[in-house]
Amino acid sequence: MLIDEELPVFDFTEHHLIRIAASPAHVDRTLRTADLASSLIMRALFFLRGLPRFIRHGRIGKAGRLDLAELQRCGFMMLRDEPEHEMVLGVVGRFWHPTGNLATIEPEEFRGFEQDGFCKAAWNFVIKPDGGSSLLSTETRIRCFGPHARKRFSAYWFFVRPFSGLIRILMLRKIKRAAEGAVP
Description:
This protein is of the alpha+beta class. It has one domain: START domain (Alpha-D-Glucose-1,6-Bisphosphate, Chain A, domain 4, 2-Layer Sandwich), CATH 3.30.530. The protein is built from 5 helices and 5 strands; from the N terminus they run H-E-H-H-H-E-E-E-E-H. It has a 5-stranded antiparallel β-sheet. Helix 2 (24-33) packs across helix 5 (147-181). It is globular, with a radius of gyration of 16 Å.
C-alpha cells in the first residue's frame, strides 16, 4: 500500500472498511466528489473541532461542503494518488492544541519530517475490486516525535479516537450511499 511508503512506522492507527455495490471507478469518482460531512452528526463533530478556531479568529472555516478539496484547504496535503486504487493524505501538527497547530510543509517533505514536539498523520482511502462490488477502506496512522508529543497525543487520542472513528465510519457510509444511489 502507498501509505506504507509514506508512514511505515507509526504509534497509533485506526482502520475501517465497507463493501460498496459499485465498480472501483465509480467508487473513486464518488469519493472525490462526495460531501463527506452532509450528516447532522458529522457537522456537529466538525463544528466542535472548529469551535476553538471560531473563538480565537471569529470563523470556523468554509461553511457548506466537506470534500477532498476542502480537506486540502484545511491543511491536509495530497501525498500520493493512484486513481481507482489508493490516495494518501497527510498532515503535520500538534493535534492536541485546540486549533491543531498545523505545520506548513510541502508534500515531498512529509516522509522526512521528524521535528521533536510534533506528530504527523497519514490518512488513506483504498479501493479494491471484489467481484461486482468494491471494498473501500480507510486507515489513519499517526507518528509522534519526542516524549512530550507522544504523551500529549496519547491523552488527546484517548478522548478523540471514538469520535475520529465515528467520522470515518460515517464518511464511508456516505460514500456507499452516494455510490450505490447512482451506479452507472
